[in-house]
Specification:
Elements: E1 2-10, H1 15-28, E2 32-39, E3 47-55, E4 67-72, H2 75-81, E5 85-93, E6 108-111, H3 114-120, H4 127-138, H5 144-154, H6 163-176, E7 178-180
Parallel strand pairs: 1-4, 4-5, 5-6
Antiparallel strand pairs: 1-3, 2-3, 6-7
Length: 181
């Protein structure tokens, strides 16, 4: 098993931390892992993306030109990465950030209305965990128990009290992900 993933959006959407949690979750399962962030100098509002590779075999390079899965959280990221999803791959997006249509017909397309769900939960910081839940529903590459361990590893201890809310958001994201025909 090998999953090559790009997560892309604006800074402040939790793109890098979502990738880090996914990477730590893979490590907890004994997988080979690569986590490579890329972001502009802005802390919030600038573009941010992270490449995550989870594999049962050694990873030869963290640099990718194509991805099995693209998680797209804004229109500029859609324009940049839509064509880089491998045929038969997966594109997962939040409907709030995408305004133009997705052109590809040779990939599976899924939507998670994470911004709406985060608002319903009265916690906008749950946004990235809702997206992660959608991903894990359609491509269960790590066990939820290891995601909890990944959360503990990536969150500072003072924020461990937020782990139950994050798990609730992951489970909610699993419920609301929809395949787009």
């Amino acid at each position: 098993m090998k999953q090559e993933i790009i997560i892309a959006g604006f800074g402040g959407q939790g793109v890098l931390s979502m990738g880090k949690i996914l990477a730590y979750s893979g490590l907890m399962e004994g997988k080979e892992v690569s986590w490579m962030p890329s972001y502009g100098p802005e802390q919030r509002g600038g573009t941010a993306n992270v490449t995550v590779i989870l594999s049962d075999e050694p990873i030869s390079s963290p640099i990718l030109n194509e991805y099995d899965i693209a998680i797209i959280l804004n229109q500029p990221s859609l324009e940049k990465f839509e064509d880089k999803v491998k045929p038969g791959g997966i594109l997962l997006f939040d409907g709030y950030g995408i305004h133009g249509g997705i052109k590809r017909k040779d990939i599976e397309i899924y939507q998670v209305d994470a911004m709406d769900a985060a608002t319903e939960m009265k916690n906008e910081k749950a946004f990235n965990m809702l997206i992660l839940g959608g991903l894990l529903k359609i491509a269960p590459m790590v066990e939820i128990e290891n995601v909890i361990l990944g959360l503990k590893k990536s969150l500072p201890e003072r924020h461990h009290k937020l782990i139950p809310m994050n798990i609730e958001a992951i489970r909610r994201g699993m419920e609301i992900v929809q395949k787009i025909i």
